[in-house]
């Protein structure tokens, strides 16, 4: 509840500050060139990375990269470190990159994230790698782990959204993941 209260407090301050500002007028002289146009249409992202390698996701990524072959298209996916079986759903994705053996030692599995990056390469998409979110085995509050987005409210801030319970294991995961991506 504390996180949600902080969010609403911050949002309220932002809204109040914005409302106190005088209106802004912008004038554009379309006949005057001041700098080269740099496209912003070519940056995309999604909460559901597992859809990117589904037939419809592959088709969409291919179409985006074909809009202008001389302009690279970037894609940023949430949930690259979220625990789960890789099934996609609304506002959720999972990769199961990190689990632990009974003795607490790390088990890394890049199988699902490799599918994302292989598909990005095949569709000529450049990845923007986002390190998130918390694997279940590293969450200090693993139960409940997965959120119920459809319900809204505090159900969203479950185990996936916490900082790591062990920063040494978290650091080792990040080093292992970045090393794996670099080697690929």
Characterize this entry briefly.
This protein is an alpha/beta fold and 184 residues long. It has helices at 2-19, 55-66, 111-122, 167-183; strands at residues 43-46, 73-77, 98-100, 106-108, 125-128.
Question: Which short descriptors sum up this protein?
Answer:
single chain; 184 residues; alpha/beta; three-stranded parallel beta sheet; two-stranded antiparallel sheet; 5 strands; globular
Please describe the topology of this protein:
Elements: H1 2-19, E1 43-46, H2 55-66, E2 73-77, E3 98-100, E4 106-108, H3 111-122, E5 125-128, H4 167-183
Parallel strand pairs: 1-2, 2-5
Antiparallel strand pairs: 3-4
Structural notes for this entry:
By secondary structure, the chain is of the alpha/beta class. The chain is built from 4 helices and 5 strands, in the order αβαβββαβα. The protein has helices at 2-19, 55-66, 111-122, 167-183; strands spanning 43-46, 73-77, 98-100, 106-108, 125-128. It has a 3-stranded parallel sheet. Strands 3-4 form a two-stranded antiparallel sheet. The N and C termini lie far apart (41 Å).
Order of helix and strand elements from N to C terminus: HEHEEEHEH
Main sheet characteristics? 3 strands, parallel
Give average pLDDT, whole number: 87
Proportion in helices: 25-40%
Strand arrangement, largest sheet? 1-2-5
| General shape | globular
Q: Which band does the percent of strand residues land in?
A: 5-15%
State the end-to-end distance: 41 Å
* Gyration radius from CA atoms, angstroms: 20 Å
Number of strands: 5
Please tally the helical runs, counting DSSP H or I stretches of 4 or more residues.
4
């Amino acid at each position: 509840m504390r996180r949600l209260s902080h969010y609403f407090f911050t949002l309220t301050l932002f809204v109040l500050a914005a409302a106190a500002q005088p209106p802004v007028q912008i004038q554009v002289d379309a006949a005057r060139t001041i700098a080269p146009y740099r496209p912003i249409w070519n940056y995309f992202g999604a909460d559901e990375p597992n859809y990117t390698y589904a037939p419809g996701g592959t088709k969409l990524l291919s179409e985006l990269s074909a809009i202008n072959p001389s302009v690279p298209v970037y894609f940023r996916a949430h949930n690259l470190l979220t625990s789960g079986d890789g099934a996609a759903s609304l506002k959720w994705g999972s990769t199961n990159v990190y689990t632990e053996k009974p003795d607490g030692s790390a088990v890394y599995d890049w199988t699902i994230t490799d599918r994302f990056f292989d598909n990005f390469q095949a569709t000529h998409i450049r990845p923007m790698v986002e390190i998130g979110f918390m694997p279940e085995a590293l969450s200090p509050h693993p139960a409940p782990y997965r959120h119920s987005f459809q319900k809204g409210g505090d159900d969203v801030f479950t185990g996936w959204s916490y900082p790591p319970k062990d920063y040494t294991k978290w650091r080792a995961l990040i080093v292992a993941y970045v090393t794996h991506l670099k080697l690929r």
